[in-house]
Amino acid sequence: MFERLLRAVASRWFRLVLVLLVVLSFQTTLFGDLRPFGYAVQVLAIFVASAGVSHDLRIGMLVGLIAGFMYDAVLATPLGVSAIVFAMVGALGALFVQPFRDPPWWLRVLAVSVAAAGGEVLMPLMKSVVGLDGWLGLRVTAVAAVTLAGGLVLAWPLLAVSRWTLQEKMSLGR
Predict the structure, then answer these.
(1) Which residues of 30-48 are buried (b: 16+ CB within 10 A; e: fewer)?
(2) Would the pLDDT of 164 be above 80?
(3) In Å, what is the CA distance from 123 to each residue of 8, 9, 11, 98?
(4) What span, in angstroms and rounded, lies between the C-alpha atoms of 53 and 148?
(5) Structural domain range at position 58
(6) Would residue 174 count as lying in a domain?
(7) What's the domain count of the chain?
């Protein structure tokens, strides 16, 4: 019984939920207050893009879906809007590096940044699709630019965190 519980706790999906809770708390507290040029850096989108870049399309979409549902639970948007957008962000991150066998570090960082910024363009589009008005405008480009710059700074550490979080096997200390 204890072995099964220990195996479940050591799984990568359990680690993912815990890491996403930490990233979400950073998103809503620290990065909610630190606003370069008046816009918040979307750390959750950068982490989802990092998961897509460091793994594959399927993992990127699943991480985006889970992160999006967690983010929708915090925001006052309809449930599933952020989940769809973040799944697209994870897929975009994976698709950007898919043509390369072993992309260099700078290409991974650039792919994470561009995918996260693309997600910040997709979010108001998705909100307007479900009927939330007032999201499309010129401020979308500023939000995408701030997220792109934040991605260039935060992508490298978040790539390492996503690789650790989603690794297949972890030793149980034996």
Answers:
(1) ebeeeeeeebbbbbbbbbb
(2) yes
(3) 33, 33, 30, 24
(4) 15
(5) 2-165
(6) no
(7) 1
Distance CA 9, CA 17 (A): 11
Evaluate whether residue 8 is within a structural domain: yes
DSSP 8-state secondary structure symbol assigned to residue 136:
-
- Angle in degrees, 0-180, between the axes of helices 105-129 and 43-54, rounded to the nearest 10: 120
105 CB neighbour count, 10 Å cutoff: 10
> Which is nearest to 114 in space by CA: 84, 144, 143?
144
**Domain CATH code at residue 156:** 1.10.1760
pTM: 0.90
Q: Which two tokens stand for residue 64?
A: 């985006």
pLDDT tens digits, one per residue of 132-162? 777 677 888 999 999 999 999 999 999 999 9
Rounded CA Rg of the chain: 16
Asked if residue 39 lies in contact with residue 138, where contact means CB atoms within 8 angstroms, the answer is no
